[in-house]
């Protein structure tokens, strides 16, 4: 059965893909050397696999080691040329000056926590953070004597002020939340953090290239490059960017002290993925918007959590701060549906893979009901929920698939005698 998708309003579509269009041209050049002195240059950097770097004299080796905050080529554990190219590109996309590449997105979440916190400090995290970030705070930070607490993602200024402590040294936000999609007022968080001498770290994975946390008061921006940058579900990698030397030096020192870096092959894959990120996302974001608008018209759906739609908490901050939207969003179902109905729906889909992660070229679905531990109430209000990642498949096909899944869901409910 072919389902036709209503046309997406032009103005909204333009607003959603604008940032990706702007980014595409920059992505061609970032992290590339200019040809010099009449010498030709390969478009892509070579992959340098190595530990030992040889020098012609001890003096030359010592001179190279003096460059520790600026891409030193002295030993493979400090980084390789392709890692440094990727770092330059990511820092520029984020609007920062320096970046540290690390072996996973999770390592990018934990590195600033290790770099900027010590025993006796207080760390205040958004309730919407990625589950393993929260687990790290609970299992590791607490063990090392850091106080940990959480703030509701949509908290107003008075609520946030009441949660600050004299020893608060770090605020950690994830905007939009990758399960619950609240878009946060990062300006407010930055202002509050700076007011008490704390740092603000933002997990900006959803907003890569669309939102610069540094223009809104953040000190560090976290990227799971595994997602949109690598873009092909074939690498695990992350990065932390900063825009101030006072934030860069402790971050770089901690990365070296903890032995954090990424393998050259993954850096190369990610740099290659970045070149086409704008083009992929221009298409995927447009399809995601079309699917989200179509879902809004379905009787099974209570609320679509897409930052470009008014039904998403914090939509006003998306309008204010983001130059576009990406291709991941949430769906909350009518409370009449239960877990088994959602299972029927998901198992009935043919074109959505069931699996963790997102940001690749393929569509994915994952149930998100109660998937995240929260201190503040969940936004699903008792309904079941799922997260959709829209890939490069034809949107008409995806909508037909979802229509079949939702019909199955309604039939399952009717079969239980409650329809
Ligand atoms: C996936 C994800 C991470 C972790 O990335 P990995 O590379 O899988 O470790 C961190 N933050 C967000 C928002 C994510 O979606």
From TrEMBL:
The question of whether Lyase is a record keyword is answered with: yes
Q: Which domain of life is it from?
A: Bacteria
Q: Which UniProt keywords apply?
A: Lyase, Pyridoxal phosphate
According to its UniProt record, which cofactors does this protein need? pyridoxal 5'-phosphate
Q: Is Lyase tagged as a keyword?
A: yes
Provide the catalytic activity annotation: L,L-cystathionine + H2O = L-homocysteine + pyruvate + NH4(+)
Return the protein name.
Answer: Cystathionine beta-lyase
State its Enzyme Commission number(s): 4.4.1.8
Give the InterPro entries listed for this entry.
Cys/Met-Metab_PyrdxlP-dep_enz, Cys_b_lyase_bac, PyrdxlP-dep_Trfase, PyrdxlP-dep_Trfase_major, PyrdxlP-dep_Trfase_small
The UniProt entry's sequence similarity note says:
Belongs to the trans-sulfuration enzymes family.
Species the sequence originates in: Komagataeibacter medellinensis
Matches recorded under Pfam families: Cys_Met_Meta_PP (PF01053)
Mention one GO molecular function.
lyase activity
Gene (name only): metC
Say which enzyme class the record assigns.
lyase
């Amino acid at each position: 059965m072919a389902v036709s998708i209503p046309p997406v309003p032009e103005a909204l579509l333009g607003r959603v893909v604008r940032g990706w269009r702007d980014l595409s041209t920059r992505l061609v050049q970032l992290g590339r050397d200019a040809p010099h002195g009449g010498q030709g240059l390969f478009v892509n950097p070579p992959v340098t696999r190595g530990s030992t770097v040889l020098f012609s004299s001890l003096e030359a080796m010592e001179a190279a080691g003096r460059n520790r905050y600026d891409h030193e080529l002295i030993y493979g554990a400090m980084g390789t040329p392709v890692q440094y190219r990727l770092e330059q590109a990511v820092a520029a996309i984020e609007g920062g000056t320096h970046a540290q590449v690390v072996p996973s997105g999770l390592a990018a979440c934990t590195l600033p926590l290790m770099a900027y916190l010590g025993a006796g400090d207080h760390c205040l995290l958004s309730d919407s953070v990625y589950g393993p970030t929260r687990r790290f705070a609970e299992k590791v930070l607490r063990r090392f004597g850091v106080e940990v607490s959480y703030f509701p993602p949509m908290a107003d200024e008075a609520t946030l002020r009441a949660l600050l402590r004299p020893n608060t040294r770090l605020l950690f936000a994830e905007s939009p939340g990758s399960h619950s999609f609240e878009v946060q007022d990062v300006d407010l968080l930055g202002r509050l953090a700076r007011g008490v001498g704390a740092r603000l770290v933002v997990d900006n994975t959803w907003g890569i290239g669309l939102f610069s946390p540094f223009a809104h008061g953040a000190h560090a921006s976290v990227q799971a490059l595994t997602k949109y940058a690598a873009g092909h579900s074939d690498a695990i990698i992350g990065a932390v960017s900063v825009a101030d030397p006072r934030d860069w030096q402790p971050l770089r020192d901690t990365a070296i002290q903890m032995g954090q870096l990424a393998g050259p092959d993954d850096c190369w894959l990610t740099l290659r993925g970045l070149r086409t990120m704008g083009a992929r996302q221009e298409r995927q974001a447009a399809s995601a918007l079309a699917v989200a608008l179509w879902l809004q018209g379905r009787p099974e759906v209570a609320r679509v959590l897409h930052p470009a739609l008014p039904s998403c908490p914090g939509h006003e901050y998306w309008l204010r701060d983001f130059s576009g939207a990406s291709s991941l969003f949430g769906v909350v179902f009518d409370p009449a549906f239960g877990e088994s109905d959602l299972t029927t729906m998901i198992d009935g889909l043919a074109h959505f893979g069931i699996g963790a992660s997102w940001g690749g070229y393929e569509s994915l679905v994952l149930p998100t009901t109660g998937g995240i531990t929260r201190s503040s109430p969940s936004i699903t209000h008792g309904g079941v929920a799922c997260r959709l990642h829209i890939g490069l498949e034809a949107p008409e096909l995806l909508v037909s698939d979802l229509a079949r899944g939702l019909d199955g869901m309604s039939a399952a409910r009717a079969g239980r005698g409650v329809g």
